[in-house]
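Technical annex B. To support the medicinal chemistry partners, we prepared a structural model of the target in complex with shikimate-3-phosphate, based solely on the information shown next.
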Amino acid sequence: MIISGTTRTLGLIGNPVEHTLSPVIHNTISELMSDGSAMKCVYVPFHVEEKLGDAVKGAHALNILGMNVTVPHKQDVMEYLSSVDDAAAVIGAVNTLVREENGYRGLNTDAEGISRELDFYGIEIEGKTVLMLGAGGASKAVAYALAKKNAGKVYICNRTLAKAQQIADCVNAHFGRDCMSAMTYEKISEIEEDELVAIQCTSVGLSPRDDECVIPDGDIFDKIAVGVDLVYKPAQTQFMKYLRAHGKPAYNGLRMLLYQGIAAYEHFTGDKVPQEVCEIAARRLEMAAGIRRPIILCGYMGSGKSTVARELSRKLGIPVIDTDERIVKTQGKSINDIFAQQGETAFRDMETELIKELIREEAGGIISLGGGMVLREENRKLLRALGPVVFLEASPEVIYKRVSGNSDRPLLAGDDLMGKIESMLKIRTPLYKDAAGICVDTDGINAAAVAECIINKLM
Ligand code: S3P
């Protein structure tokens, strides 16, 4: 990143700050957005011990554009600000300082972080019953976000009832609704509702205590429809393993970390961070956190997924999983035979099952998806838990040239190949784009160049 006279400074104040991942988020965004008219920024950690007020005042005097605040200053910083937004006032903590003429305005983007994570994974909250585990630091932001999303009922479960009660009372009072209630873990089995959304807000299960979970495996997991663990290291926590063993989708909290940063960046600069930049920042964040996930390639038949996967494999020295090949191997018959004997729906079920298996086994490497993998909404959601998805886009003409003369694809058999390609692409292109955060136009470039482009974005 080139720092010039117009580069603006962003930062983090806290103690300690050495472990922080925030510079990865903000500097990635800034690097990727600095081509256009967006503001150019650099983000640095500042170790602040006692002189918090001096630090905030000094930052303003130095024309620092915005800051994040972390422990132990999230509450104390409030007395040095020109104003505080609604979320921060209710949550009682500030994590973002946005520059105003006479000082900084304090915001809390943690609630926005979890809210955007829930949106990303397609987890609906409105009218739903939510089970929150834990009433510690992050819980109030989560409770605030849930109330704002109009949750029907929220059970806040904690060892010490009074702490859960305090959050429930505070959020209920603020929103003028009685949706939050407190309970201890012993009472969990008395919850009558099912289809719960569960959010694990404690630090139990955080590496190196990988095999611990705040609640034991049991019937409650059958009542949960989907779960999020705010812990993101390990990438698959014990809580998530229990959920997945009960057949339920489960996600970690890396996206909350990402989105609280992205929201802060947007408040600092006024620039909207595009989706592709979010996805690249997510990948860099994972790598900085030591989390390894596969790179997934999707696209229409003949878009070059298998060839690009082999190129990536060669360049990065990691293996390829081809979902069609896996299915052919486990079924012991060709795709044509599966379609002819069992029908397309059976094949699609096999695809869904395979994605779930790859998530459970934490598959790595490069995953090349069959062209129809994105058709089911369930699959598109599941893929978000598996890894970053890249859409290899190709024009109907290029695809036509690549697939004509090939008889392995049951959906392209018969007459009017070009017509089939065009009409299927019309339906599928939005689905590929929905599944993938990153899109590479492959027309006119060879597989090696496509692979290079993916490596530049994701590695
Ligand atoms: C299909 C694509 C094929 C294979 C099956 C169905 C599709 O994979 O899964 O024939 O619906 O697009 P490729 O895209 O790898 O050819």
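Notes passed to the chemistry partners:
The chain has three domains: 8-108+257-278, 122-248, 292-458.
The radius of gyration is 24 Å.
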